[in-house]
Write a structure and sequence with these properties.
Layout: H1 2-11, H2 20-42, H3 44-51, H4 55-79, H5 85-105, H6 109-136, H7 143-150, H8 153-172, H9 174-195, H10 210-214, H11 219-238, H12 240-244, H13 253-300, H14 304-319, H15 321-333, H16 337-365, H17 369-388
Length: 401
C-alpha cells in the first residue's frame, strides 16, 4: 500500500507544477496596468470633446502616468522592501480601482491628471514586484516560465484590451470604459486575495540598497540592453501612424496593430517555453530579429508585403522581451531582485518617454525614413552589449527544464 504513495511523492520534485491561478492573477495585474496606462490614447477624440481640452492635453494623461512610474519605482520599491508582499501587492492593485473610478466620474481635468500620476506611482511599484513575486512561487528551473506567464498580460492588453476598450468607449461612452476597468480591478483584488500566496519582506540585514544593486556584476548591462531595446521599440510604436503611410496602409492601421499584438503573444509563448535553457540565445535572437525588422522597414518600408513581414518579426521579437530582461535581472540580482526590477521599470519608462522625444525630433527634422535607421543603430548597440555580457548579465544557461 505504501509503494504508490512513495512513487507519487518521489515524482513531485522532478515534475513540479506551476501555480497557474496565482501566476495568471499577476498577469491580470499587468493587463490592468497597461490598460490603465494606454487607454486614453484609444479614447482621445471622445475624451477631448467632452472635457473641452485639446488632443495633446489628453495625451498628457499618458505622460504624467509614465512620470509617476519613473520617479516612484526605485525609491518606493527600496522603501517597501520590508513590507509583506501580498498586502503591498493588493495596495498597488487597489490604486488602479481608485484612479479609474476618479477618471470615470470627475469633470475636472486637473484632478484627472493628478489621479493619473498616482496611477503611475502604483504601476511603478507593481511592475517592480511582478517578476520577483512570480519567481518566488516556483523552483529555480521554472522561474523563467513563471515570469513569462506573469508577463503575458502586457501583449494581451495591447492586442485585445485596448482595442476592446476603444470600441466600448466609442459605442457607449469613454466613462463606461473606465468604470469597467474599475470593476475588473475589484475582481482582481478578490482573485489575488484568494489565490496568490503571501511572502515576507526582507529583513533589515537583507535589504538591498540602490547603489549596492547597481554594483552587482551584470545589472548595468541588463539595464542598458533594456533601455536601448525599448527605446527602439517606442520610436517605432509611438509613430506607427506616419510609419505606415509610405506603404499605403494607413486605413489598415488597426490590422497592423492586431498583427503586431498577435505576434507578440506568440513571442511570449515561445520565450516562456524555452527560457529556462536558452535565456542568452533567446535574448540575442530577439534583438537580431527586431534589427532585421528595422532593416526591412528602412530599405523597403514602402512595400506593403515587406511592411507586413517586418511588423510580424517586430511583434515576435518584442513579445518576449520583458520576460527575458526581467528574468536576466532576477537571475543576476539574487536577493536584490525587487530593487533590480524597479530599475528595469525606470529604464522602461525612460525609454517610453525617450521614444516619443527622439522619434518626434527625427520625424520633424529628418523624415519618417530615419526612424527605422535610428532604431537599427540602437539595436546593434544593444546586441553588442548583450553579446559581450556572457559572463554576467546573459550567461549561457544549460539547466534543463
Amino acid at each position: 500500500m505504501s509503494t504508490p504513495q512513495k512513487r507519487a511523492v518521489s515524482k513531485r520534485p522532478d515534475h513540479p507544477r506551476l501555480p497557474l491561478a496565482a501566476l495568471l492573477a499577476l498577469a491580470m495585474s499587468g493587463f490592468i496596468t497597461i490598460l490603465t496606462e494606454a487607454q486614453p490614447a484609444g479614447l482621445l477624440p471622445q475624451m477631448s470633446a467632452e472635457l473641452a481640452v485639446s488632443h495633446s492635453a489628453i495625451g498628457q494623461l499618458i505622460t504624467v502616468y509614465a512620470i509617476g512610474s519613473l520617479v516612484a519605482a526605485i525609491p518606493l520599491t527600496a522603501a517597501t522592501q520590508h513590507f509583506r508582499r501580498k498586502p503591498l501587492l493588493l495596495c498597488a492593485i487597489a490604486g488602479f480601482a481608485v484612479v479609474n473610478t476618479i477618471t470615470a466620474l470627475t469633470e475636472s481635468f486637473a484632478i484627472m491628471l493628478l489621479a493619473r500620476f498616482v496611477a503611475g506611482v502604483s504601476a511603478g511599484l507593481l511592475w517592480a514586484m511582478i517578476a520577483g513575486y512570480a519567481a518566488r512561487m516556483v523552483p529555480d528551473q521554472l522561474k523563467g516560465r513563471a515570469i513569462a506567464i506573469a508577463m503575458v498580460g502586457t501583449p494581451l492588453a495591447l492586442s485585445i484590451g485596448i482595442p476592446a476598450g476603444t470600441l466600448t468607449g466609442t459605442v457607449i461612452g469613454w466613462r463606461i470604459t473606465f468604470s469597467i476597468m474599475t470593476a475588473l480591478t475589484v475582481v482582481l483584488v478578490g482573485w489575488v486575495w484568494a489565490k496568490v500566496p503571501d511572502y515576507p519582506g526582507t529583513t533589515i540585514s537583507g535589504r538591498a540598497s540602490i547603489r549596492g544593486t547597481l554594483a552587482i556584476s551584470g545589472i548595468k548591462s541588463v539595464l542598458m540592453v533594456t533601455l536601448l531595446f525599448v527605446l527602439a521599440h517606442n520610436i517605432l510604436y509611438t509613430y506607427i501612424a506616419p510609419l505606415v503611410v509610405p506603404a499605403g496602409l494607413i486605413r489598415k492601421l488597426d490590422i497592423v496593430l492586431l498583427v503586431f499584438g498577435g505576434m507578440a503573444i506568440a513571442g511570449i509563448v515561445i520565450v516562456g517555453y524555452l527560457i529556462g535553457r536558452w535565456l542568452r540565445a533567446l535574448t540575442l535572437a530577439c534583438i537580431m530579429l527586431f534589427a532585421m525588422a528595422a532593416l526591412l522597414l528602412a530599405i523597403g518600408g514602402e512595400v506593403p508585403q515587406l511592411f507586413w513581414l517586418a511588423t510580424g518579426a517586430w511583434g515576435l521579437a518584442f513579445g518576449g522581451a520583458a520576460t527575458l530582461f526581467q528574468t536576466a535581472a532576477a537571475n543576476t540580482s539574487g536577493q536584490a531582485s525587487d530593487v533590480a526590477q524597479s530599475m528595469i521599470v525606470t529604464a522602461w519608462n525612460l525609454a517610453i518617454a525617450g521614444g516619443g522625444i527622439v522619434g518626434g525630433l527625427l520625424l520633424e527634422h529628418s523624415g519618417v525614413g530615419w526612424l527605422s535607421w535610428s532604431v537599427l543603430a540602437l539595436l546593434l548597440l544593444a546586441l553588442g552589449i548583450a553579446f559581450l555580457a556572457k559572463d554576467s548579465a546573459f550567461p549561457p544557461n544549460q539547466s534543463a527544464l
